[in-house]
Specification:
By secondary structure, this protein is of the alpha/beta class. The chain has a domain of about 240 residues: NADP-dependent oxidoreductase domain (TIM Barrel), CATH 3.20.20. The chain is about 40% helix and about 15% strand. The strands form three sheets. Strands 4-5-6-9-10-11-12 form a seven-stranded parallel β-sheet, with helices on one face. α6 links the parallel β9 and β10. α1 packs antiparallel against α11 and α9 crosses α10. The chain binds NADP nicotinamide-adenine-dinucleotide phosphate. NADP nicotinamide-adenine-dinucleotide phosphate (NAP) binds next to α11.
């Protein structure tokens, strides 16, 4: 359910660039003062320098009934700040960017035990220090670690491990309760009922507020929801990967479960700044993904060109079109794009103001669907762990 639909009307590219330039200039002259006061200010106290800048005031509710969780209509995926993406800023710059997102109305921040591993949660914990109860951080359990190293062939959602991760995440994030605790990947050796029951106990103990699952199929969702009401499913969803439309999204609608599309810009690809010559950093997982090999990129750029052409006449960037399309697929959908840049943060937030008609949605979908996607999103091992 969407709240406060008060950001009517879109903002074109020229206006966006002008405002972003002002935001950048303001950021250069005012940061010291802002930092001094950061700990004391409230989320709703928007600094004066942000007047007229991109922000998000719309909210959406993930889940329903006792599992309802109201957040900004677009969240912030924190993974790429220091893991799996290229060009990580230093810690202070990451923290400043998270604060910029809060100032602009973002109340949903996503991380996981496995990002880093462990370092992303600690970074997010530092950035959100002092904001507990005003913004929400979601994290994930379920990968298997031995001596701090992930065992990629196995998962671990045993009740003992869920509890261990919960305690570690509470410590790393510096919070008393995790706003939403997702299972990261299903564990074939632990029935989903046991997972749901463990999270239900953590909710009763006040250590977790809401339950979520990632990349599971409809049957698993139904079984989990029968034990502990699910607030959100987090799975990959964007114009180049629409599998969840077959049975997961209809079930979310039926059961009143929210949906959080991860990698909503297809790991940056739909932003239009990646081409076959792009060099990814050694720790950027995109270089291992079939869809990010040079030949696949070269072929798939035709899809970005569709978004470019669609956005060009309307004054929007391809990333904005990608995000606006997702947000129009249902008001129970809250994308979590990641970025390391203030300009992209602003650009992405403005996508929440875009209105697309049903005809425009059909036009966009038809143009994109006419181009076959080259390369699978994951390698064989990763693919074997999703939608089960
Ligand atoms: N549950 C899961 O299994 C799972 C898996 C993957 C991700 N996630 C979550 O989803 C979040 C987002 O996923 P993601 O980082 O994989 O993908 P994404 O949000 O689709 O893309 C992020 C990439 O896009 C670039 N970008 C952002 N805004 C842009 C814009 N306006 N124009 C051009 N490029 C832009 C960013 O680069 P710049 O830094 O240069 O902006 C970054 O490299 C993660 O942080 C994580 O929380 C969850």
């Amino acid at each position: 359910m969407e709240k406060q639909p008060d950001n009517a009307g879109g903002i074109g590219r020229r206006s966006f660039l002008k405002r972003t330039a002002w935001a950048g200039a303001a950021l250069c002259i005012a940061p010291t003062l802002e930092r001094v006061h950061a700990a004391g200010r409230t989320v709703t106290d928007r600094p004066e320098r942000l007047a007229g800048m991109a922000s998000i005031s719309r909210q959406r509710t993930l889940g329903s009934g006792s599992a309802a969780f109201t957040v900004s209509a677009m969240g912030f995926g924190c993974m790429g700040l220091n893991y799996h993406r290229s060009g990580h800023p230093d810690e202070q710059a990451c923290i400043r960017l998270v604060h910029e997102a809060i100032d602009r109305g973002v109340t949903l921040f996503d991380t996981a035990e496995s990002y880093g591993p462990f370092t992303n949660e600690r970074l997010v914990g530092k950035a959100l220090k002092g904001y507990a109860g005003r913004v929400n951080v979601t994290t994930k359990f379920g990968h298997k670690f031995v001596n701090g190293v992930q065992v990629k062939t196995e998962e671990d959602s045993t009740p003992a491990n869920i509890r261990k991760v919960c305690e570690n995440s509470l410590r790393s994030l510096g919070v008393e309760s995790i706003a939403l605790f997702y299972q990261h990947r299903s564990d074939p050796n632990t029935p989903i009922e046991a997972v749901a029951e463990t999270v239900a106990q953590l909710i009763r103990e006040g250590k977790v507020q809401h339950f979520g699952l990632c990349e599971v199929n409809a049957e698993t969702i139904r079984r989990a929801h029968a034990i502990c009401p699910v607030t959100a499913i987090q799975s990959e969803y964007h114009l180049m990967h629409r599998t969840v439309e077959e049975s997961v999204l209809p079930l979310c609608r039926e059961l009143g479960i929210g949906f959080v599309p991860y990698s909503p810009i297809n790991r940056g690809f739909l932003g239009g700044l990646i081409n076959e010559y792009t060099q990814f950093s050694p720790n950027d997982n995109r270089q291992t993904l079939p869809r990010f090999q040079p030949e696949a990129i070269r072929r798939n750029l035709r899809i970005v060109e569709v978004l470019n052409a669609f956005g060009r006449t309307r004054g929007y960037t391809p990333a904005q079109i990608a995000l606006a399309w997702l947000m129009h697929r249902g008001n129970f959908i809250v994308p979590i794009p990641g970025t390391t840049k203030l300009s992209h943060l602003e650009e992405n937030l403005r996508a929440a103001d875009i209105t697309l008609t049903a005809g425009e949605m059909r036009e966009l979908e038809a143009a994109v669907s006419a181009i076959p996607v080259t390369g699978s999103r994951y390698d064989a091992l990763q693919e074997s762990k999703v939608q089960r």
